[in-house]
């Protein structure tokens, strides 16, 4: 069970940016004195065996929220609990449980796909036998055996993304945190990634992923959290979300919850 309560993150403006902001009329509620409140008040939870879709226009604060959840960034305010453990106080506990896929691949270009995944497995202290078993299972699920011996710098975008996912889940995490996992992928690679997420849904694991693709939400998500301008505008089941508008579709529900309608992908 993951619980995020009143989460906030501010970034200090650099000197150049701060100078530009001086004496300017402020219309964006995220703009503060010397700081930008990228995430202002985000609250949601995700139970075991559930998939939560994190939605929001460009710049809403989704990546920043997921980075805090994965311990890569420290919150300015608020609380992140995994099974009741405070992530900021016990980052190692969280890192063991979470498999985090960020926008960056995190792969070593000169190593093969298998060497990359093994490297991260060793960092998590996996034995050779466990590693071999895990790699076989994950490479089968993500259809990776054919390119396991290729160097990372020779991979297509779709192969690279699947290798990044394998790296993120080698330690058998109980929580998947994926930031836009299908962005830039062709239909076949995207389907492989979505099937992989769906397979987690059948287990007792929690999955949180951000996306701009509402058909992915429709297919996979039990719950939805919509963020706009750094704060939660909606949190609830996908059905409740869709039922907010008379059309009952997710697209209209999205538009009715955000300010910047033109930024929907
Ligand atoms: N390290 C940082 N320093 C300053 N501002 C930042 C930093 N990281 C993010 N921001 C700003 O915070 C806001 C939220 O960014 P974030 O990447 O979380 O949005 P997002 O919802 O993931 O957007 P997208 O859908 O475009 O990926 C943006 O305005 C971004 O420019």
TrEMBL record:
One of its GO terms (molecular function) is ATP binding. Keywords: ATP-binding, Nodulation, Nucleotide-binding, Transport. Residues 2-254 form the ABC transporter domain. It comes from the Bacteria. The keyword Transport applies. Pfam families: ABC_tran. Belongs to the ABC transporter superfamily. This is Sodium ABC exporter ATP-binding protein. It comes from Kangiella geojedonensis. The lineage of its organism: Bacteria, Pseudomonadati, Pseudomonadota, Gammaproteobacteria, Kangiellales.
């Amino acid at each position: 069970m993951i619980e995020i309560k009143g989460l906030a993150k501010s970034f200090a403006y650099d000197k150049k940016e701060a100078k530009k902001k001086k004496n300017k009329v402020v219309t964006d509620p995220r703009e503060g004195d010397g700081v930008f409140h990228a995430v202002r008040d985000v609250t949601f939870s995700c139970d075991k065996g559930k998939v939560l879709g994190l939605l929001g226009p460009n710049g809403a604060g989704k990546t920043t929220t997921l980075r805090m959840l994965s311990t890569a960034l420290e919150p300015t305010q608020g609380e992140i609990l995994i099974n009741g453990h405070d992530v900021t106080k016990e980052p190692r506990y969280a890192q063991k449980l979470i498999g985090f896929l960020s926008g960056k691949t995190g792969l070593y270009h000169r190593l093969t796909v298998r060497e990359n995944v093994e490297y991260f497995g060793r960092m998590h202290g996996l034995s050779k036998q466990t590693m071999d078993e895990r790699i076989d299972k994950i490479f089968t699920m993500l259809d990776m055996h054919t390119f396991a011996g290729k160097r990372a710098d020779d991979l297509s975008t779709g192969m690279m993304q699947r290798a990044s996912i394998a790296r993120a889940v080698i330690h058998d995490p109980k929580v998947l945190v994926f930031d836009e996992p299908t962005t830039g992928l062709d239909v076949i690679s995207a389907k492989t990634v979505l099937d992989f997420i769906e397979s987690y849904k059948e287990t007792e694991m929690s999955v949180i992923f951000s996306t701009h693709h509402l058909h992915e939400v429709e297919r996979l998500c039990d719950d939805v959290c919509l963020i706009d301008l750094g704060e939660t505008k909606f949190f609830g089941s996908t059905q409740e979300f869709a039922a907010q508008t008379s059309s009952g579709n997710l697209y209209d529900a999205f538009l009715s919850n955000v300010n910047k309608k033109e930024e929907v992908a």
